[in-house]
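[Meeting: bench + compute handoff]

Bench side (C.D.) handed over the final construct sequence. Compute side (W.E.) agreed to return the predicted structure before the next meeting so the bench team could plan truncations. Sequence as handed over:
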Amino acid sequence: MMKSEYLDVSPLVRTKNVAKLFQAVEDHGGTIRFVGGAVRDTLAGLSGFDLDLATDLSPDELMEACLDFHLKTVPIGLKTATTGVVIDNQILEVASLKRRILVNGQYSEVFTDDWSADAATRDLTINAVYADLHGNIFDYYNGIDDLEKGIVRFIGNAEERIKEDPLRIMRFFRFYAKFGKAPLDIPSLNACIKFKNKLRCVAIEQVRDELFKLLVTPNVCMALKLIYDNDILGFFLPPSQHLYALERLTKIVADAKYEGNFLRRLFVLYQPNVSEAENIANTLRFTKKQKETFIKWAKISLNTNIAASAYERLKFVYRYGKQFTIDKILLSAAIDGVQIPTLNSILREIEDTVVPIFPLRGRDLIGRIGNGEHVGRVLNALEQQWIDSGFRLTRDELLRAL
């Protein structure tokens, strides 16, 4: 259960103020440990995780301890007994330990000082591993061994874990796509299938967020195939017929050394027209910016010779920007399956492009041709001449063209 000085905690103890928080809790007679994703990902050699902690102090006791050490606190989760501690202008979430009790046929959670009872309230074995400031590991459900073997499974009875929180269905598939190496845990899968309709009771935004996280995992196609084959998200999204294109996109993006992008991957999965893109954006309740980008990908076609012509690439970058151009090239390469031998060099060229600036403004024309709507039309015509010249015409040359 406990492994002494097993973990290098330097990625977790990012500043001396994190150690200060541990000291504050200990001086108040409590214990505090890193938990969940921070421990799991550090053990797996990953980075970029959020720092979550747990303590056997109640929220009131924790705030009192922090006050003595001049650490600011904010109550951020009254129902989950989670306290935010401000460390270096960032809020670290510290959850007070809980245990689950059955009251009138329903489970509820109460405070406890029992670490193993708190571990029992968590979803997966790999997420129920704790670590202290000295690298000592506390593993109550064999999570380290499961992580090393690539086994993803629920703690205890899988059906009970899902009934407590149906969103755990999505988390199961997400973590299998991220860490799974062994064959799928059948009791866990069967429980997900049996209670899949309970996902309908979960806020659509929560399901969407888990889907987005799943989309950027290493083995997303493997997990999505399981989800589609078992109709886990049938109420939410139809199955995709384009997993092969998603596999291509993940390889292209990895070869180009880009980060995975959930919106690009979703687009490749469904390859929507404008109307379909709008429907998906509305169903998943995209942000305004996400919706605009998603629909724009569907609306704007990529010039077929853009891969062969630096001038065509420059025109596209000028009209739509560097990131949109890169996204469209990646999407088109994945969807159309076009092999572009120099793709990575083209992408680097776009990143380094100095976007031309049109040398005229409307005010440059007002004194020459008067006011009115025709100023805009003339300006647009001059801009097109400038583009057709390879962006070479100067301001004086354009004015002479009047």
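W.E. noted at the follow-up: The chain has four domains: 1-149, 154-236, 240-355, 362-400. C.D. will use this when planning the next construct.
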